[in-house]
Amino acid sequence: MKLTGFFPSRTLGWYVARLFLVRSFVILAMLVVVLQTLDLLGESGKILAIPGNTDADVWRYAGLRLPQIIARFLPFSVLLGTLVTLVTLNQNSEIISMKAGGMSAHQILAPLIVASLFVAGISFIFNERVVTRSNAVLSAWQKVEYARVPPDRGTRANVWVRLDGDLIHAGMVSGRGAATVLRDVEIFRRQDNGLVGIIRAPRATWVSDGSTGSWRLEQARQFDVANGQLREAGTVMAAQGVTPDRFTLANVKGDDLDFASLRGAIAELQEAGKPTGPLEAALWHKISGPLSAVLMPLLGAVAGFGLARSGQLFVRAVIGMALGFLFFVADNFGLAMGNLGAYPPLLAAWGPFLLFLMIGEMVLVRSEE
Predict the structure, then answer these.
(1) 18 and 120 belong to one structural domain
(2) Shortest CA distance to 88 belongs to which of 294, 297, 299, 303?
(3) Burial class (CB in 10 A: 0-12, 13-18, 19+), 125
(4) Which residues are paired to 301 by β-bridges?
(5) Which of 10, 43, 308, 351 has an alpha carbon within 20 to 30 A of 282's alpha carbon?
(6) Does 165 lie in the same domain as 141?
(7) DSSP code at position 228
(8) 118, part of any domain
(9) Cα separation of 69 and 21, whole Å?
(10) Into how many domains does the chain fold?
(11) 122-137 residue pLDDT tens
(12) Is 317 helix (H, G, I), strand (E, B) or coil?
């Protein structure tokens, strides 16, 4: 058998990679159908319970939820695709034939690793161009409990900001910088931990006077708790010193922004002196997450080596599956620790990947021996 460097022949490499890709995407399709169906059973009732919502809104929800399910379970499908491919090759004695031809375990897995790099690249692009947008729209829709909301990616819903003892709530926030517009604004004025008044307005815009600024509330109504009176206040200037970035950066979510946008939001937060550790972990995980597909051939390699007639093939497949699921547990744990500030951002995002890369390589070397 002719070998070209580290890789097997083109025919053999394409054969193994094709088996791996076909099985991985078939498993992904089956997982998506089952999970999408179960998810719709749980959410369709909530959607249709809102007056004015129809079956079209249920399908809209399905379209927004589909990219999330694909992104979340693509690594699982790659793991299962690896196990099925290697078990099949082992049962058919094809791996034994490859090793008899002088190929090492690394060379046998080389086509799977290259194919998984292709999957990782597709996953990254899909996450950046599709998943982040669906996350932003679905998150805004769910915040208003599936009521009508413009599907604007730049719109943030249900934002709270604190000014000394007062609380400011904006039902919707759109725009950035001086062009930021607040809608359905409520200002809860408090004194000595008690509510003294409420100002409500359908719209508010930022007015800057140079060094600082305040918000112009239009068609405002003011409620005085002491006398229980509600009066029309017209145009009111309020919330002096509460800059627009307090609203636009209040609910920054790493899952809702692509890599470039999230990096820009982190820079703005750092300029405002706000902590950015969890967002930095989410930023780096946008790279390490898709690359987890590359680990699956290494972690599942234990299922491809060893004699099929030894009766331990099923046990090897279970071990490979267990290693893969342990990685996902460690990955989620690392992100949780990063969100809590217990892990540095780089460690939270890359620690599990590097740890299981070494574990997978160790298992592969031991299997080859």
Answers:
(1) yes
(2) 303
(3) exposed
(4) none
(5) 43
(6) no
(7) T
(8) yes
(9) 19
(10) 2
(11) 999 999 999 998 998 8
(12) helix
